[in-house]
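Per reviewer request, we include the raw input and output of the structure prediction for the construct analysed in the revised manuscript.
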Amino acid sequence: MREILPKIIGGVVLLSVVGGGAMMMTRNKNTAATGPVPVAAPTAVMTAPPPVPEEQARYKRDMLGYDDTVTAAATPPKVVAAAVVANAPPPAIPAENSGRAKLQVGKTAGAIKLSSIQLKAGEKISLYYTCNQKNVSPPLTWSNAPSGTKSFVILMEGPDRGRGEPLQWGVYNIPASQTSLGEALPKIPMDDKGIGQAMTEAGPVGYVGPCSPKGAATFVFSIYALDAELKLHGGATRNELINAMNGHIIDMMKLPVTHYFRL
């Protein structure tokens, strides 16, 4: 019995090994036939965009034309800045001209004087201040404002092509104590002093210099002394600015210049 028992135990062990190997082979065949067990991908967690400050949201809504209160899945439209094309005139004013505000100037003091070390009345404006070169605003100086002046407005308008003079620069709520504007005024809707700049009829806020086709054209810089500060936001439209000025002009002066560019 002692001699038979080891043989029986050995046989059981051998059968266990052979059986285990067969099971492993069967499992490997099944895996090869069906492929690996798929693993579920982690679920992406959608997060809402960070809140947009009210001032930034208002600027995008009023100035750029879209609203940040859209859903997270929506994509805001891409805003492309308008390029200034050399030698191309500002876009023509729409034919629907009935709603175009008209500046109403009554009796004025006739005392205020507008000048510039870079501009001479009736003479050619330097190309530096036009779309042909730097397209920055020129320095301006004024004096002899009448008593009662509360603020100044500076306008620069282009030639009338049958639909009115296009506004190419409008600066408003210049303090009564101020007597000049430096060269290259930053093109922003409003500075920290409360001086605003209008939307031009060429599109952007701030100065858009003379940009005429071949030949000569007249552009007019004007200053207006007002008996009030205008209740306008930064980046006001031309109509908003003109309508706000009407009834408050107590003095004015114009400084015409010529833009001539030979192709």
